[in-house]
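> example.struct
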């Protein structure tokens, strides 16, 4: 029995159309995937930039709050001579005037070179680009009585430009019987003061 002839030419147009549809469909699928990937990448990039900008804004806001809170204190320390270069001339002049106003029997001093201060209470403090310095002053003072030394420190607190602490002090009674003569050195005090200064970027700029 003879098989009937089949005319493939009748289906050629349909086959071509089917292949064209498959190619177009595949292209659309590829393009949609490509477009989705690009959009996701753009979203992630923009989202990351937004988060960075938000963090910078919050950081700036925090910095502004710190400045508003601490700047008056900074100005106070700068005006007192704590921020910037040390003012030894002021220390010496204030010390001399204080000794003269109290009428101390004798007053001798010696100041060592300034050096970086590393006290224990600053070990865990993040000071950033600030550096604390100290200059040690040795005082040998002849006193009529022990209250003269307290008066000397009070005068320094009022007039000296800077910040200091008394790190060590010894008192020696020179006489068994106190002499009322204002020039008598009934007591000798040997003390060490530490003067502190802080260096910061922009030292020397005018402060309002």
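> example.seq
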């Amino acid at each position: 029995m003879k098989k009937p002839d089949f005319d493939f030419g009748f289906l050629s147009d349909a086959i071509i159309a089917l292949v064209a549809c498959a190619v177009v469909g595949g292209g659309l699928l590829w393009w949609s995937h490509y477009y989705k990937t690009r959009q996701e990448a753009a979203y992630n990039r923009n989202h990351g930039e937004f988060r960075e900008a938000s963090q910078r804004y919050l950081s700036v806001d925090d910095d502004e709050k710190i400045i508003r809170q601490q700047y008056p204190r900074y100005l106070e320390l700068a005006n007192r001579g704590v921020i910037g270069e040390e003012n030894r001339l002021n220390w010496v002049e204030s010390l001399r005037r204080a000794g003269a106003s109290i009428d101390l029997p004798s007053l001798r001093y010696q100041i060592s070179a300034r050096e970086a201060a590393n006290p224990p209470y600053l070990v865990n403090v993040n000071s950033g680009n600030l550096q604390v310095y100290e200059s040690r002053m040795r005082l040998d003072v002849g006193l009529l009585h022990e209250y003269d030394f307290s008066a000397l420190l009070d005068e320094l607190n009022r007039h000296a430009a800077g910040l200091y602490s008394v790190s060590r002090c010894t008192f020696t009674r020179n006489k068994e019987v106190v002499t009322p003569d204002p020039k008598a050195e009934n007591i000798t005090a040997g003390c060490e003061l530490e003067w502190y200064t802080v260096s910061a970027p922009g030292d020397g700029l005018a402060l309002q």
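> remarks
Residues 147 and 153 are 10 Å apart (CA to CA).
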